[in-house]
Design brief:
The complex is a heterodimer of chains A (455) and B (176). Chain A has 455 residues and is an alpha+beta fold. Helix content of chain A is 34%, strand content 27%. In chain A, helix 12 packs antiparallel against helix 13. The chains are: A alpha+beta (455), B mainly beta (176).
Chain lengths: 455, 176
Amino acid sequence: MFRKILIANRGEIALRVARACRELGVPSVAVYSTADSRSAAVRYADETVHIGPPPVKQSYLNIPNIIEAALKCGADAIHPGYGFLSEDADFAEICRDNGITFIGPTPEVMHRIADKATVRGLMADAGLPVLPGSDGSVGTAAEAREIAAEIGFPLVVKAAAGGGGRGIAVVREAADLSAVFRETRATAQALFGDPSVYLERYLPSAAHVEAQILCDGYGTALHLGERDCSLQRRKQKLVEETPSPRLSEHQRAWLGEYAVTAARAVDYLGAGTVEFLADEEGRLTFMEINGRIQVEHPATEMATGVDIVTEQIRVAAGERLSWTQQDVTVRGVAIECRVNAEDPVRGFRPTPGPLTVFRPPAGPFTRVDSGFAEGDTVAAHYDSLLAKVIVWAPTRKEAIARLTRALEEFQVGSEQVATTIPLVRELLAQPAFLAGRHSTVFVDEFLAARAEPPA
Amino acid sequence: MRMTERITANGGTLTTNTPQETTPAAEEQRLRLIREEISRLVRDLPGPLTAVTAKIGDSQLEIVWAPPQAAASREIVWTEAAAPAAPAAPPVEETAKAVTAPLVGTFYRAPEPGSRPFVEVGDRIGAGQTIGIVEAMKLMNHVVSDWAGVVTEILADDATAVEFGQPLIRVEPDES
């Protein structure tokens, strides 16, 4: 096991990792920007290092300062959390050069899965179903038109280096293709520093289903069931649940097979996610592999009893997974919902400010992961995730009732901070969600319909 | 030949290091490179230069220049309230300013082991003067004072790890 683990992140995930460290008996180091000097993770960690001013480029993305902080504290491993440096293969390489273990896949695997156009090809070769699309990246608009004629419309133009729902554009008819192709390349260059894009058929009413994988260095590759993350606003997940309400047992078994095949095809190590789209009949097609811990990992933890972060750390330390596929069963239903400091009434504007009242829910089978406590301030510099509320129940109906109850209990009182709690409560009561038939555009359509004046 | 360069924001110090080569031809070549480097730097750097040091033995070139007027009030003043991890400093008069570490690394009080520290308590220093070095990722970063005044306290020991914003020395600024 590691001597000491530095957590190169902030907020709830930094606290989540620090708790795992505490349970493993490994001292933790929290690094923080000036804006986070009193955060919950900083209060909790065994040691802290101030790494820079509030802007992320000078703090949480400041590789020299993070590496120096690890060396200064004698940390022999860095947990990157999600976002920030978690998918930066160069950072993983710098860690290795400095004798520090990056808790995640190897830099080689990170490079391999970062190019979404290449991964698509790898997965098709391994036997996974992929949507009709281009074979790798597409260089010119003329080439794009040729391929589009084969795929048909609507289709999506996607940044090969993209992620987080950004760098994706839908093309509904041939006339728009050239313009969208050029725009997406420009966006990809601006956002990810790489203009490469690829084409894929667009499924207008698809669901987002992802498999949690966990692999050690001794040839064990596990899947821990799936999460259905179809309740999204503008491609940002709001609610995630396991198991998916829309897959048959047969389809679920295939998803597990596909996920393990995908993990083996890229020689995966650690915790990761294999994303699929499911059409209205529940047929799956491969989307991408995410090489990090996911925001929504607690849903799987609640339903399987597997502590994914602890296993991730153990595997990185060269230990074997403490689970076999036979031991892993998804029991009952777990649902997670994200509570964001955004104002749904004012165009989901982020609402930074002090949390005068902050009383998260509790009670049976209710877990709250948050990086805040009453009296803390939501900083304007970072994402708006305030808390994740996760519940478990034997059935989906009971789980939805429990989550609704928990959200009713959740009190956030502040003159400045608004939350998405009222919206999520409303969404949980919609017939399409209750029936498990909602697609990834359900929330956007719901909000658009409500914004229209009654006829 | 590997060259490393580091320019601190808003004026400051630039150091160029080159590893040692021993032949006379190499020496000649190095001297020429250093001369060219100086001419280029004098041309390119903002603000007037205040010192130039060229050391041939280890091929070290050092240039100190004054920060531009507009950026003179660079705000990196450390506040105790935001520093739960920093050791509590003894109370000092309100007027004293702390020069803080601009990055995480190892603090050195002197240019090399055994030599005289950049500053001692009681020294009069100028704005833009080097007060120490923070080594990070094998790069030597000069830390400069934003104020002209008298050094009243040395807060960080030589060769110790420092974090961002950690107070290194205290300066009593001149009345302005």
